[in-house]
């Protein structure tokens, strides 16, 4: 909530929470947050585009309306898409010569803001321009761009991104739809061989799509060249399926019901040879296949890699949804009162320790995600604008996407749910927005790459990086490396130094705490964990290289859980690093101080979450481990007075939040009740308590 | 799924999962599960009533239909309630002389099964017969029973349980609605003094309720005697509000939209003196107040205590929802294949370690909850049937409710969500049931007692129990007690004995593991944690007794998070104990073996979750702590072949599950795809791979 007039929990230094302890040891003056400066920092690298987008999402006609039927909601979102097409808000990534701006990062920045209007609008726009349109742009060539992009951009051609099949979601390489080249007629014959090969969960497929970018196994001359994309007409001008095309409606979903997801099947449908989107692979008239990328595997990953923007935008949108949920819950929690703690007046619920524990660490995580997302978006922009788009850059970008998207989409579900429970029964009402956000965001965890599968990709990359250091070397090198590491650490790092803590720390919690809030100590704790986990797993997997494929797979499988945990640790480290860089770049002194505490809360929260690991691996003594929780309690109490400013800095107006409980209504009710009792007592007509003497 | 013909993952001993390791150390023959015997055991103490209820919930006309509008859903559920009234399924708790059975435990057993038909049906039935009807029965006297219960039972009088107000949910004692006695007219004047005092979130209030049990501050002769319940007419025969009554619809909610929740307000509405439900407190014609319970506090808790059955039934219903979700996800996970792990065929996803880690521990938790719930229900029945209903019994029952309901309702949300994600995109479709269950169960975490507030009640009880041991004694006693404890433990318990582990365990993981699976070791680890946490907190809170109320509240607040964690640990211990007793009572040898593993998974899962605590407090050495995770991995692999039998034993038929992905459809698709490729290869027409030589 940007409107400061509606705030009831002043964060001015004169009124800190009663629970806020005095800083111990060193003198720390109580800072103030400069909300406009912090808001500006959170807007990231494309602030003007985000501000413009927020003007758009504040317009009622672009917003979701709870309680519409599925049919009504779908119609409304389709109409909203037409508005977006007219506004041009969604065209920034397209080529300049077609009316776009070739602005890839800015496009995503503006696009992900749509989540505040209605996640269905965001995702349906993403299907049309982000997936369907991008596939034509990145996998097609100039002739496809000129023929199809204008209609895609204007929404004259609503379309489908037909990749996933009922039988294969995460394993795209195994899709079963075939596109077999017939040199006689210079056509591809597109066919769905069995039920599991039906295309499924496709946005725009149930109703609106009149064409698709279809992914199928390209077969020519009796050879399967792997998955390629084709331009595939679906429906005629009356909306009826073309001959050979059939489909089904996926029907009601757990959320995102403004999108008409559906299934498609093809019965030997013929399309012209030119419909192959042939940027990375082509078929000549005579059926000869050619590609500039000789390795089928690399070709496949190159084609899929162009679609990374879906993951980028989900990372951003999930973070925004978390920010909105926290703004609602913190605003309500700062006004709502329940139970008299010790005095006469009922206590504001955000003054309860448990309530702070529920919300403040999630504010820290959302800040970490916001900063990490902006760096991610800058990296994405560099790759897609061609500033830095080597193979290595692209692989780094994909690893970043695979690490960050799972963390932020899971965190959104966790955060929105915690916010909903923190608002009690009021949180369960649709009018307070949280349940709708939660329902819509649910599928973010499994689409555009299932989170669990993505984290395995990260883990494999980490293992590859690790093993590259030992390529062309015998196993003796590994042993020497480990010794070397140990020596390095003893000299420079936190890792082994902490092993000596049991003695050094004894009796000195203050000194332990002092170390924990050092940036380098946090960095070492988090980095060391990732490195150690990967080294451990690599050691356990080494025998697998000598086994049969099945045995090798079994060994790998026996460590799958550890691998995923290591990948998660890596993603957390990336978020922490981005947060730390953001703190370093903060110029306002008050903001820098509060962000430092918030970063400490995030970093030490991660250490607390994984405390058993640090203890088992001798990185923290029991004494110091205990001080982690104690110090987190202190930071949280210290941050309490800044809670409202921290969420206000996300910059959402009442038009974005649209939650009655965050509108100031609760404060009005509290004031009215307080005034009533004050007047009643003054009137002398207040009833006595049955056991009045017991009451103080 | 009870229909064994539809199972694809046989759990026969001949075909264990490839991932299942050989038991090490001792020879353990592979057991088989006797599904009918296990099903019978899981049905608990009222098996016939549950079986009868499941016949009812298998009837389509009692089931929810996804995608109805809120208005349609409300109408449907109201009609379903009429069916239930005719069936008499919901009358078991009512007095025999009115056509009931005075069967309190059996009533809840049957009632909570309704969740499988539609949670809206369960909760709306709960409002009518469980809250509204029970309040008349338990807080009213014979004249109220005879006047009102017949209409309540037959649904001639749909009613509202009007307790919660917008301003006060958990803190019922602070509700602001007043009922002021007017001796002149022998009436109570019911009034809503301000907006926050509106009754809110009330089922049946928006449309259907024609009367309410209303909770208000009873004021007579200028004295407030605290919260009492009143019979309150709301609407006339046309459905219009009576004079002075007004209301609002709560509108769309995150789930349970078959229930018409709403708000009510009263403008000096007069009701006859006799409308006071006067079992625990009465007002004579002249306005004199009388009560058999002299303490207002005890009177208040006695009145509220009669309503514990809401929490009992939510504990059972949440457990059933978890069981259904797991049945769906395990059935799908046993048929669905994705990625080739090492061989030619794609791997069944439940053979992936991570997938097992996601689902099997949750099966263990759901079993623990099922057994704990049955014991809870038996205790409830004893109190309400009068077999064991001393004050102490009632307090124990309330503590049990406050400990178990939070754990099982939170676990339901976690489990259903994990099941939904484990089913990928298919899990997000309404046709597969999981998203609807999750949405409906959401509010179970905050209604009928907010989970966080309930756990604080548990913690306070534990602290009271602890301090009672030291009543009338100086502080020296506490110190002696601690020494005594230490001595006891050194002789008899696991607690301090484990402090010596670091040396004893070194190099011997096997021996560590051997100890961990001993029942007494698990019991000691879990019990010791609860005791130690409470002792620690009690020590920290002791200075508070000498402080001002505000200071004392601040000290308490500074440990709120620890208190809640201790209460949770207590609830987990109760579940573990119930599971252990159930294992002891299991007669079938195969079932007993598998349940023992499952109990170990539950118990050691708790130890793993709290591993940092055990390490910091010296209860586990780093060596043994590490073996906890390793042993859990082993138990999970060992349990994998029994996963389908374990969920089938929950006893739900396809009519209860109503999830397409758990109907065998996935298996059919897999078979069809496999047959297609087999035939294609046999035909000689299969396309070659572009890089065929690379393929094995």
Pick out its properties.
homodimer, 696 residues, Butyryl-CoA Dehydrogenase, subunit A, domain 2, 3-stranded antiparallel beta sheet, globular, disordered N terminus
Secondary structure layout plus pairing:
Two copies of one chain form a homodimer.
Chain A: H1 35-43, H2 47-57, H3 70-87, H4 104-112, H5 119-139, H6 142-154, E1 159-162, E2 178-182, E3 187-191, E4 199-202, E5 211-220, E6 223-233, E7 245-249, E8 262-266, E9 269-272, E10 282-283, E11 289-290, H7 296-305, H8 309-333, H9 353-385, H10 391-422, H11 424-428, H12 434-441, H13 451-468, H14 475-492, H15 494-497, H16 501-504, H17 509-516, H18 519-541, H19 549-557, H20 560-585, H21 589-609, H22 611-616, H23 622-639, H24 643-648, H25 654-657, H26 665-683, E12 688-689
Parallel strand pairs in A: 1-5, 2-5
Antiparallel strand pairs in A: 2-3, 3-9, 4-8, 5-6, 7-8, 10-11
Helix pairs in contact in A: 2-4, 3-5, 4-8, 4-9, 5-6, 8-9, 8-10, 9-10, 9-20, 9-21, 9-23, 10-12, 10-13, 10-20, 13-18, 13-20, 17-23, 18-20, 18-21, 20-21, 21-23
Keywords (chains A, B): FAD, Flavoprotein, Oxidoreductase
Pfam families (chains A, B): ACOX (PF01756), ACOX_C_alpha1 (PF22924)
Family (chains A, B): Belongs to the acyl-CoA oxidase family.
């Amino acid at each position: 909530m940007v409107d400061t007039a509606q705030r009831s929990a002043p964060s001015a230094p004169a009124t800190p929470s009663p629970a806020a302890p005095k800083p111990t040891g060193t003198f720390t003056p109580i800072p103030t947050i400069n909300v406009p400066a912090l808001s500006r920092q959170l807007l990231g690298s494309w602030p003007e585009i985000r501000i413009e987008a927020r003007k758009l999402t504040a317009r009622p006609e672009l917003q979701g309306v709870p309680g519409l039927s599925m049919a009504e909601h779908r119609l409304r979102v389709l109409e909203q898409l037409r508005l977006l097409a007219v506004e041009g808000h969604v065209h920034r990534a397209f080529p300049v010569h077609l009316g776009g701006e070739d602005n890839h990062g800015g496009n995503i920045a503006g696009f992900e803001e749509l989540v505040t209007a209605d996640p269905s609008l965001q995702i349906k726009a993403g299907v049309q321009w982000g997936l369907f349109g991008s596939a034509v742009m990145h996998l097609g060539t100039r002739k496809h761009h000129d023929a199809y992009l204008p209609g895609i951009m204007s929404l004259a051609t609503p379309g489908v991104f037909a990749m996933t099949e009922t039988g294969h979601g995460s394993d795209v390489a195994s899709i079963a739809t075939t596109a077999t080249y017939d040199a006689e007629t210079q056509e591809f014959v597109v066919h769905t061989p069995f039920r599991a090969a039906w295309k499924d969960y496709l946005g725009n497929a149930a109703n609106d799509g009149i064409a698709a970018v279809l992914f199928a196994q390209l077969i020519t001359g009796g050879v399967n060249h792997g998955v390629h994309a084709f331009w595939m007409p679906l429906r005629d001008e009356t909306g009826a399926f073309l001959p050979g095309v059939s489909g089904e409606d996926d029907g009601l979903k757990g959320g995102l019901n403004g999108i008409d997801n559906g299934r498609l099947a093809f019965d030997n449908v013929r399309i012209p040879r030119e419909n192959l989107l042939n940027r990375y692979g082509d078929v000549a008239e005579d059926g000869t296949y050619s590609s500039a990328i000789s390795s089928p595997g690399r070709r496949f990953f190159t084609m899929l890699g162009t679609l990374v923007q879906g993951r980028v935008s989900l990372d951003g949108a999930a973070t925004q949804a978390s920010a909105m949920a926290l703004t609602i819950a913190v605003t309500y929690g700062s006004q709502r009162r329940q139970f008299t703690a010790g005095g006469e007046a009922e206590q504001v619920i955000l003054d309860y320790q448990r309530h702070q524990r529920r919300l403040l660490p999630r504010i820290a995580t959302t800040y970490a995600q916001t900063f990490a997302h902006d760096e991610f978006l800058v990296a994405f922009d560099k790759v897609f604008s061609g500033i830095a788009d080597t193979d290595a850059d692209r692989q780094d970008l994909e690893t970043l996407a695979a690490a960050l998207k799972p963390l932020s989409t899971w965190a959104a579900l966790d955060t929105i749910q915690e916010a909903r429970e923190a608002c009690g029964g009021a949180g369960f009402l649709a009018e307070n927005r949280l349940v709708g956000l939660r329902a819509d965001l649910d599928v973010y965890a499994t689409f555009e790459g299932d989170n669990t599968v993505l984290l395995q990709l990260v883990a494999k990359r980490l293992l590859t990086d690790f093993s590259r250091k030992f390529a062309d070397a015998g196993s003796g090198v590994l042993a020497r490396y480990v010794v070397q590491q140990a020596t390095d650490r003893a000299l420079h790092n936190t890792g082994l130094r902490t092993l000596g803590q049991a003695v050094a720390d004894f009796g000195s919690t203050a000194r332990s705490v002092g170390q924990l809030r050092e940036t380098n100590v946090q960095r070492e704790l988090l980095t060391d964990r990732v490195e150690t986990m990967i080294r451990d797993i690599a050691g356990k997997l080494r025998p697998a290289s000598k086994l049969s494929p099945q045995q090798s797979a079994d060994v790998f499988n026996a460590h799958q859980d550890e691998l995923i945990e290591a990948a998660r640790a890596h993603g957390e480290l990336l978020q922490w690093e981005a947060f730390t860089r953001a703190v370093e770049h903060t110029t306002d002194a008050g903001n820098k101080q509060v962000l430092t505490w918030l970063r400490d809360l995030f970093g030490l929260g991660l250490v607390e979450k994984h405390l058993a690991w640090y203890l088992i691996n001798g990185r923290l003594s029991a004494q110091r481990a205990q001080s982690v929780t104690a110090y987190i309690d202190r930071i949280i109490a210290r941050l309490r007075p800044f809670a409202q400013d921290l969420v206000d800095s996300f910059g959402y107006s009442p038009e974005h939040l649209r939650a009655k409980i965050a509108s100031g209504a609760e404060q009005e009710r509290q004031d009215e009740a307080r005034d009533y009792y004050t007047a009643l007592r003054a009137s002398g007509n207040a009833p006595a308590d049955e056991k009045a003497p017991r009451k103080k």
